[in-house]
Design brief:
Elements (H helix, E strand, L loop, with lengths): L13 E4 L6 E4 L8 H14 L1 E4 L6 H9 L4 E2 L13 E6 L24 E8 L7 E5 H6 L3 H7 L3 E5 L1 H4 L23 E5 L1 E3 L6 E3 L6 E4 L4 H15 L5 E4 L6 E5 L3 E5 L8 E8 L6
The structure holds succinic acid.
Amino acid sequence: MSLDRGKAKSGRISLKPVTGAFGADVSSVDLNLLDDRMTADIRQALLCYGVLFFRDQAFTPEGQRAFASRFGALNRHPYVKGIDGYPDVFRIVKEPEDAHHFGNGWHTDLAYTETPAMATVLYGIEVPDAGADTVFSSQTTAYEALSDDMKKKLEGMHAIYTNANTYGANSKRFQSGVSKAMSVSSAEIGEVVHPLVRTHPETKRKGLYLSPLHFSRFQGMTEEQSKPLHDMLVQHATLPEHTLRFRWSEGAVAFWDNRCTMHYAVDDPIQSTRVIQRVTLEGDVPQ
Ligand code: SIN
């Protein structure tokens, strides 16, 4: 399968692009019954489209682990406890009365670590009739749409990310707000430095590497000095042209590449509980 989305084809899985920029719906596949060739096709599709969606799947925790393991090593979340017997599988729960949805804010997974997540697999266990969608942004197409002068200005810049915003003991964001069904512990505060423009290690495409939920400042600047440029880039990367919105159904799977996308769990009012099961893949140091 070519990395050119226009030419992406596979006889073994069916792909339907979601937008002109990124994302694809994948059909004709049971994720519990993959062989090596289908796995290779899905990996190629992920590289082409950045985020893939599947419907009507039936994952046990073990099945979801087995699917994700075909693409790399599994991550154990530093602050969110896994389900019994599966420390690398956790459930994102939102009850109608909860103050915050876990992941409500633009981010890429684990950006506050030295080796942020390569990819994430979410599986819909229980979903409301409407609401709590997940929105994605393509950081590659956002970067490519910048002017050459802006690209030059950003080249060589670095951003500082912290776990304080979401897992700090005083953070109001998660600790006090997410469902009691989730076990989230507070972090020893740390900072990491990542390039603002990263090159995808497999596709070699350049993209922005933004994670506003975890952003502190640009290296060599104060938070105040960083804000105007950061706000402009986030606004640009979240334009409708660079985003898509996924509506959940029970049995749906979203599989995304954190090296070239951001995502946002929408915190609109829901009438019933939402339970999504997550498995995360280890990544490398962004370059
Ligand atoms: C996440 O950031 O992993 C949560 C996304 C979601 O629940 O929609």
